[in-house]
Fold this sequence. Notes:
The complex is a heterodimer. Chain A is an alpha/beta fold. Chain A has eight helices and eight strands; from the N terminus they run βαββαβαααβαβαββα.
Amino acid sequence: MEEYAVIVDNITMKFNLSTEKVDSLKEHFVKFLKRQNSNEDFYALKNISFKIPKGEPFAIIGGNGSGKSTLLKLISGIYKPTEGAITVNGSIAPLIELGAGFDPDLTARENVYLNGAVLGYSRRFMEQSFKDIIDFAELWEFVDVPVKNYSSGMYARLGFAIATIVKPEILIVDEILSVGDVSFQKKCEQKMNDLLSRGMTLILVSHDIEQVKKMCSKAIWLNRGMLIEYGDVDTVCSRYMQNS
Amino acid sequence: MMPYIIKFWKYRELLYQLVIRDLRVKYRRSVLGYAWSLLNPLLMMAVISIVFSYMFRFEIDNYPMYLLTGLILYNFFNEATTLSMSSIINGGSLIRKVSLPKYIFPLSRTVSSFINLLFSLVAIIIMFAITWTPISWTIIFFPLPLIYLFIFALGAGMILSVLSVYYRDIMHLYGVILTAWMYLTPIFYPAHILPELPRALMKFNPLFHYIAVFREVVLYGQVPTLRSNLVCLAFSITSLLVGLYVFKKAQDKFVLYL
């Protein structure tokens, strides 16, 4: 068995701001006539390397625009890095946002199956887990209501319930716990602790330093695409607090 | 190859769900629902047969059937490629947030259009009954041209879905191309009335071959020759290979443009 769940090896993620704005033939043609050179490179992440050990709760902290979400998208395979390589050992719940695959016009029941399909789970598995999902999300009352009528808390609850039903080896959690109420936050923390005790790797992105300290053992701190600090959660957090 | 098959198998449920959703969306809030798949080509056939029986006359036996067979195949190609073209853009909210095989979007659109095509085959059966056209045993070959056309449309749809991500105005242009393509394909006129040059160029029109083979087996009781099968297959395979190649090259960058 590998020692690390995720190995991030010297990755750089570059966005070209100007070409990604152009999306029609007409604009390409105009640009060609004007002979514009497009050199508006933006480095969302620069030379980042770190390793996440298996079965450990790991935090990514940093201010807005520091590259946290880009890093998550790279780890979950939505983006491919411009340079460098990422190795992921184990199944990953490929969710960046809870309820990402929801169709607002469908009911919770239909969305559970759709979302399960998006995550690549079989129908039979979803049928077996359906009761557990709705139990956990506490949504039996609203199970046949289209999710567009849900509150954001209900949305997040359903999303979290689906994402954790599979017992993924790696779970990525991006700022979601701020949505639900206190009792649901507790429930989520309990569920994550439960999964952690079974050897799951948790990657948590949060602004909430207290929560990070409570849940995680290692952390990295990103600022403007650079890795500032990497190591023990208390050291990283205290340096982050001092500098912001 | 094996990892691709395993991944496809893993996501079969997603394909199924997307196809069901496409079909539901298409007939949402319509009273007649799936009957439209059947009524649409029949009504089109009625209108065009009336127009062409009075205005221009072509020497074609059983003109309504000739027309219907061509229309149904062309309609499938039109629908499948048009829907596939916008499939990646419409799937953007998923592609930006979840890692999944992206070819599933054009594939699901092509499959759902193909299911519509199967529904509209009932229109052909109805016309067989109404016009008392004799049915030949060669009709058992009818899936062949349909499968060729499916593969061709899938490849074309993949190419278009990639193009439309980078150049959104392709969508408007493609509508014009489709109209031109329809008039350049012998759907409502016989191929032999064409002047020499366009008739020679017809060899390069894949839709011409698929429709010709379909008419041979359904209407004319002919077994398609090996040669025409190979021609059809060559177009289909080329389209699919080019589609897969273009798609594979572009798919990692989609997400930046959506």
